[in-house]
TrEMBL record:
Native source organism of the sequence: Pseudomonas fluorescens
The enzyme's E.C. designation: 2.3.1.109
Any Pfam family hit: AstA
Single GO molecular function: arginine N-succinyltransferase activity
Superkingdom of this protein's organism: Bacteria
Gene3D superfamilies: 2.40.40.20
Gene name of this polypeptide: astA_2
Protein name: Arginine N-succinyltransferase subunit alpha
Annotated GO biological process: L-arginine catabolic process
Cross-referenced InterPro entries: Acyl_CoA_acyltransferase, Arg_succinylTrfase_AstA/AruG
UniProt entry tagged with the keyword Acyltransferase: yes
Key words, A-Z: Acyltransferase, Arginine metabolism, Transferase
Amino acid sequence: MLVLRTVEQTDLTQLQQLARDSLVGVTSLPDDSERLREKIAGSCASFASDATAHGPENYFFVLEDLDNHRLVGCSEILATAGFDEPFYSLRNRHFTSASRELNIEHGVPALSLCHDLNDHTLLRGFHIDAALVRTPFSELLSRARLLFIAAHAQRFADAVITEIVGYSDANGHSPFWDALGKHFFDLPYVEAERLCGMQSRAFLAELFPQYPIYVPMLPQAAQDCIGRIHPDGQEAFDILEREGFETNSYIDLFDAGPTLYARTTNIHSIVRSQIAPVQQQPHIDARGRYLLSNDALQGFRAIVAELDYQPDQPLSLTPAMCAALNVTNGSPIRLIAL
């Protein structure tokens, strides 16, 4: 059985292997033991905190195969993007110029460095084992974070964002980075992303041009990258799009990947999830597949299970399911259909 749970200090070695395997552009998962150790410690402190509002907390989850105690994925929630330093992105909007004498009005798309997305909750760090891509466990790894937000709404903002990794080729070259960022840093795309993961994007963003960049002045290959998703990032995008997230006018400043946005009142797993008390049963006549979680904080856990759920009735779970979720008879369970 696979269970999503909160990260622990003993996960460091396996977590670093996940970092090595993760997609370039997932900068919140650096392949560095000291940085990962700090992230784990910070996450443990966040789960232990008594926060009553969204602040600097970072909640780190891992997906564990209980049969062999192997980590097969991870994901995160940063309660407040831009809390400690500006959260930079590029705003892609039209700049309009006009001439009364010539009776001409013309709009040109332009990219402007900004930190408009400060103060939003940020989903990040999504990575899953290649063998589990496009399975219900990808849904578990991504959407269980939303059930956690539903259970602890006071810890998060009213709007949630996530950056989807933009296009780069098999050799790690990003046409967008080569056309723009490389001129200001003299670094390859992969190295820039690595530095961002090791430190922060702020010191890199501060070297970006402070004036609008007119999109038609970029090479066509770079223009084609704006809002384009890396093939390996498509599943992360699709899951959240089905949840009600939408693209907006913001893109990543390194690879031009799209940013997804949703208010919590429009996110399906938050507003449509149900709560039912547990009733332990030795066997279940399964009729549908569901995503389940307890509503704990430090002991938060979530699984995918085949159930026979009847609204307004106790939820029948097997002993194995109860053990995975760390619940007993009468415990509240949050669930939503897959």
